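the two lines:
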Amino acid sequence: MNGTVTVEGLSKSFPGTSTPVLDDVNLSVEAGSCTALLGPSGAGKSTLLRAVSGLEVPDAGRVLVGGQDMAGVKPERRGMAMVQQRPLLFPHLNVLDNIAFAGTVRGVPKRTARVDAAEFLDLVQLEGFGRRQVTALSGGQAQRVAIARALAARPSVLLLDEPFSALDPELRSAMHALLAELRRRLNPTILMVTHDRSEAAVVAENIALFSGGRILQHSSVELMYSRPASLEASRLMGGANEIPGTVCNGSHHSALGVLPLPCDTAWPTGPGILLARQESIEVSAADGAGLQATISGLQGMGPRRLVTLDAAGVVLRAEVPWGRGLAVGENVTMHIPTSALAVVDDSDTAHLYADADERPSLTSRGRAALTGVGH
Amino acid sequence: MAAPAVLVATFVVGGGMATSLAQSLGLFPLVGPPSLTVAAYAAQASELPAGIGLSLAIAAASTLVACLVGFTAALVIVQGRWCGKLVAALGTLTIPVPHIIGAASMSLLLADSGLLARLFNTGGGWPELVGGPWWIAVVAEYGWKESAFVALVVTGTLATRAVSYDETAALLGAGRLRRLRHVLIPLSMPALAVCATIVFVYSLGSYEVAWLLGRAYPEPLPVMALQLFNSATLTARPEAAAVAMVTTTLSFGAVAAAFAYLRRSTLWR
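prediction for all of em together
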C-alpha cells in the first residue's frame, strides 16, 4: 500500500469533556516523508495518531492511506505499526520472538520469521541480543527492539508516539541517528508525535503544529521557524521577539525603525507584528553599524546566552555564543538579518483591515475573526 | 513485619498437620500407648484408590471449568463495556456466597425435582445431575463459585496492561484470535496457574459440596475423612487422619507442580 496519509476534517470528543480533542483536523503527508506532530501536552497529537491507526474511532472526518478510506478497517489491516513511549515488548517472548511477532501472527513459519527478525535486529545494531529476555534490556535497547519489531511488520506507515522522550539526551541523539539510517534504508512514511521542537527539527522534514485540537500550521521545518503563520505558532516554536507595527511597501515600521522584510513573500499592507528569531539576532560592539541597544539582562543557556536588549523602548531577546564579555547596562549594536524576519496578523487588530476579505488568512484564529467581522 | 502472621500460620497449619500425621501413624492414639504403625493407611487401602481418583477428577474438572469461565469473564470485564461491568458485578456478588449455600442452590436448581426439571417438564426424564455418576452438580457448583474468583484475579492482572499490549499486537497485524492466543493467554498464564492451583486444592480438600450434591459411594477423600472422623468407632479417627494426610500430600503435589511451572515462566521471574 502507498504510504500517503491524508486526514480530512477529523474531529474527536471524549465523554465528559467540553471541548473536542480533535477539531476539524486536515493533514496530508507524502509517502516516504517524516512529519512531526508537534505541540503541547493535551493538544490532540496522540489522539490523531490513534485515530490514524484505527485505535480511536473519530466522530467525524476520515483517514485515507494511499487514497483508500480507512473507515471500518481494523487496526491490524491498516498496514501500520506504532512505537510508543514505553517499548511495550511482550514480556513472555524473548527479543528475537518479539521482533518475529508480526511474521508469526501472519502465519509465517517460526524459523523463517526468526531469520527475518534477526536481520531487523542487526539493523538496529543489536546483533547477538536475540535470545535475551526483554527484562534484561536497558531502556535504549528496549526501544531499539520496539522499533525493529515495528519495522519487521513492513508497515507502509510507521507511527511514533514520543518514542524517545524517556531516554537520556545522549541516547536520544543515538536514536535520532538510527531513525535517519532506517529511513534511508527502508523509507517508510513516518508520523511522529513529540513535544520537543529540537527533536522534531532533527528527525522530520515537516512539522504539523498542534494546539487545542487544531493544526495551527503544517509546513517544512525551515518555514515553521522562519515563517510562522500566527503569533501562537511563533510562540509554540519558541519565538521570543514580537514587535507591533505596520507593514508598508514590503517593510515593517515600528519603534525599531523601518526594517525591510524578506522579498520572497508578498507582505500585506497594514498592522502586523514583526517576528525576529532570537537565534538570528547578532550582538556586537556599540560602535558597529546597526540598531543601538542596551543590555538589560543576561541568562546562561548551556552553550549560549540569552541576552535581553532594550532598543528604543522595545525589549528584544537574542541568543549569543559565549566568548565575548557582555555585561548588564552595556551599550551594544544589534543586527537583525532580513531573512530572519516575518510578520503575522495581530489577532487583536485584524478586524481593522479595510481589505480583510482580500487578505490571505494567516491563522485559523485570524480567519475566524475576519469571517466574524465580514458577516 | 510479616513475622507475626507467618508465626500464626505456621503454628496453625504446621500444628494441625503434625497432629494429623502423628494420629495417622499411631503416635497420638485416643486410647492405649502410642506405637508407630501404618495400620490406619492399610485399613483404608482398598477404598483409597477410588477416593483418590474421584477427588482428583472432581478437582480437575472443577478447576478446568472455573478457569475457562473465569478467564472468559475476565476478557469481557477488561473490555470495559457495559456487559463487562455487568459480569464484574455478578462476579463480585458471587464471591461472598458460602459454598454450602451455593450447593443448596445448585440442588434446588439441578435436582430431578428442581427448578429446571419443572421448567422443562421432562416427565421423569431429567438426567441425574445431582447424586449422579458424573458428579455434575458438584463440578457445576465449584465451577460457578470459583470462576468468579478466577475472573477477578485475572482481571486484576490484565487490567493494567492488557489493553496496551492488545493494541500493540493489533498494530503488528494480529487479529482478535491471534491476539488471544499469542498475547492475552500467555500474559494471563501466571495468574491463571496460581488461581488454578488454589481452586484445585480447595476442590480437592473441601467436603460440603461433594457431601451434599454427590452420591453415597464412592466417596471423595474429604467426605471419606469426615465420615470416618464422625464414626461411632473412635478407633476410626486415625484412619480419618490417614485419609486427610493423603489429601494433603496430593495438595502439596499440586502446589509443587504449579511452582515448578511458574519458575520456568519468564513472566513469574
